[in-house]
Amino acid sequence: MSAGLRNYSFEDYVTEANQARDVDTLFSIFLKTVAQHGLDRAIFSLSTDHHDIGQEADFGIVHNYPESWLKYYSSNNLKYIDPVMLYGATQIDTFSWDDIPKRILLSRKQKLCLDMGDEAGLRNGVCTPLRGPQNQLAGIALATTERKDAFDGNVDMVNAYCNHFYIAYKRILRRKTQEQEQEQNIVLTDKEREVLKWAALGKTDTEIGLILNMSKNTVDSHMRKVFRKLEANNRVLAVVKAITLGLVHL
User: Fold this and answer.
1) Cβ atoms within 10 A of the Cβ of 184, count?
2) CB–CB of 146/123 below 8 Å?
3) Which residue blocks in the chain are alpha helix, DSSP H?
4) Same domain, yes or no: 165 and 57
5) pLDDT at 2
6) Coiled-coil stretches, from where to where (predicted)?
7) Is 62 in a helix, a strand, or coil?
8) Distance (Å, rounded) from C-alpha 43 to C-alpha 190?
9) What rounded mean pLDDT belongs to the chain?
10) 3 pLDDT higher than 50
11) Which of 25, 73, 151, 203 is the most exposed place for a label (fewest CB within 10 A)?
12) 91 backbone dihedrals φ, ψ, rounded to 5°
């Protein structure tokens, strides 16, 4: 490790990460930072849909895992049995992969999944679950290529880096949706936003009218204007587009 990286503090990381304008740059900064702790492999995934930034659940959004392992992982649908993902969904803090067999009963296939990850060069693994609003769940798994004495064990710093990465990632995606909104020049009135918000929460036109003190016909009129502006032919599509573009926040 260079002297520069030895003196690279959490504040330095935050400053540099906040200047990233795209996800790849952010991930490169993150990799450089966790490498200080001996972790040279990382993968970031969304376990649930993140409608507020227009992203669906996806495994390995950014990573530097071995491609051969990811190909095998995907072709065998290991995400459905992966003990790291399943256990991570129940946790709030960074945990070691080695702790999983001590805390939950694993099937033969799940034990094999961990063993094969080790053989693929993913050792001394840790995972940080990441939680957002509306029950959003994401996670970052990190590992070392070296088998022994690579990770320094500083899980508190790893937890801090991972949580900031998640915040910065969402900020970048949100900025993109706002830029798209400006490019498309889509502007909803306050009433249109209110109507659409309640529609997103499953309210009928009659219920929305009672909540907002307007007639059912007025609600319908607002919805039709929203459809035209968003080029949507139904309220589900209109809601998804509006949330993706940051026009409506639930």
Assistant:
1) 13
2) yes
3) 3-6, 10-18, 23-34, 67-75, 83-88, 100-103, 108-119, 155-184, 190-200, 205-212, 216-230, 235-244
4) yes
5) 45
6) none
7) strand
8) 40
9) 91
10) no
11) 25
12) -110, 165
Based on the fold, state whether residues 136 and 210 are members of the same structural domain. no
Q: Which amino acid is at 188?
A: L
Chain center to CA of 230: 25
HEC sequence for 115-159: HHHHHCCCEEEEEEEEECCCCCEEEEEEEECCCCCCCCCCHHHHH
Residue 202 maps to which CATH number? 1.10.10.10
Q: In which domain, by residue range, is 219 found?
A: 186-244
Cα distances (angstroms) measured from residue 67 to each of 72, 120, 212: 9, 10, 53
Statement to judge: residues 112 and 213 lie in one domain: no
* 250, part of any domain: no
- Could you tell me if 193 and 174 lie in one domain? no
How far CA 23 is from CA of 8, 32, 170, in Å, comes to 21, 14, 9
* Number of residues that make up the chain: 250
Nearest alpha-carbon partner for 128 in 139, 120, 138, 118:
139
Nearest residue to 114 (alpha-carbon basis) of 92, 140, 86, 151: 86
pLDDT band at 6 (very low <50, low <70, confident <90, very high): low
pLDDT in tens, 21-53: 999 999 999 999 999 999 999 999 999 999 889
- Confirm whether 59 is domain-assigned: yes
Residue 41 covered by a domain: yes
